[in-house]
């Protein structure tokens, strides 16, 4: 006999009353289905809603020694700008860029990606906008979006709060793996244009904007748009462009290492792919950062070295390239519409001069990697 007390009809606490709306979750899935399906090629099995995404990897049988590369990341406090602007369809592209551009660094082509969205309350249209952005980014990267999770956390997050994270896996032939082992003295350092701030340093940027009394709807002449629109510019996704370089007959074997310029700035991330005994000498005079970097510096009176240790300063990806093939690499990138230029060279670490100016400084041992060094010299055009 069941003696469990039964609540009177209509008097009990339901899941919906506790703050979780499963119907809204189902509605969000319906709104995103088409965008997700658009990233699926013939190697993706099944559709949205399965417990696990399936990818046919039969093609790996053609590899001599396939290596799987994986990466996971988020977007950080850039989400605060998206929330304030009530614009949510660009954050997904940021997420994809942060993940897949770490995978291409080792020379791997991304195969599949999954996402995770945590929120205080499911607003179907907002969740669908986020996922549509993720799907768009996956399409740009040539990567399938094969699964995801939307988790509603009432009581832990406010109804307007959300955060996103993602993970991806890719593959590279073992003998095509890029990294410090391939870097040689005399290699050329090529810097590729960032689209803007990308998705790092927004805690600093937001603090500067607040201290300067600026508003996101404020038109900034140098940007040609509002401050909020500039800050929401999506992270550039370099994967397809770099796969084109790696696969072009003119540039085969040219790229020895790549560095994705994310948190910590250019020098710290470039140091991660420098071998012991070698150093990259990078000349700031070879490129001019976008207007947003100068404005952040002036609005917040941010010291340049602190700015450089936080933001990408207009260079979002770096390649270390055999000098005799540097022009060919630049030509392929130019054909694809990606701005790039030589910004330095690889030298023996013992040849580095003692810094003779406050802005000249050597970065080593970045993010736990005990490798070579990076020396920043000179000054950007137009910067005092």
TrEMBL record:
Record's GO cellular component terms: cytosol
Enzyme class: ligase
Top-level taxon: Bacteria
SUPFAM superfamilies for this protein: PurM C-terminal domain-like (SSF56042), PurM N-terminal domain-like (SSF55326)
Segments forming domain PurM-like C-terminal: 184-350
Cross-referenced InterPro entries: PurM-like_C_dom, PurM-like_C_sf, PurM-like_N, PurM-like_N_sf, PurM_cligase
One Pfam family linked to the record: AIRS_C
Catalytic activity: 2-formamido-N(1)-(5-O-phospho-beta-D-ribosyl)acetamidine + ATP = 5-amino-1-(5-phospho-beta-D-ribosyl)imidazole + ADP + phosphate + H(+)
Chief location of this protein within or outside the cell: cytoplasm
Compartments where located: Cytoplasm
GO molecular function, one term: phosphoribosylformylglycinamidine cyclo-ligase activity
CDD domains reported in the protein's UniProt record: PurM
Alphabetically ordered keywords of this record: ATP-binding, Cytoplasm, Ligase, Nucleotide-binding, Purine biosynthesis
Protein name as annotated: Phosphoribosylformylglycinamidine cyclo-ligase
Pathway(s) per entry: Purine metabolism; IMP biosynthesis via de novo pathway; 5-amino-1-(5-phospho-D-ribosyl)imidazole from N(2)-formyl-N(1)-(5-phospho-D-ribosyl)glycinamide: step 2/2
Organism: Brachybacterium aquaticum
GO terms, biological process: 'de novo' IMP biosynthetic process; adenine biosynthetic process
